Amino acid sequence: MCGSYCTFKSAMAAIERLCRVYDVTPIMSEASSVTDTRFGEAADFRRRFEELSGREIVDSIKKAEPIGPKKLLDVLIIVPCTGNTIAKMANGITDSSVTMAAKAHLRNERPVVLAVSTNDALSANAQNIGKLLARKNIYFVPFRQDDPAGKPCSLVARFDLIEDTVAAAMEGRQLQPLLAVN
Question: What's this model's pTM, rounded to 2 decimal places?
Answer without folding.
Answer: 0.93
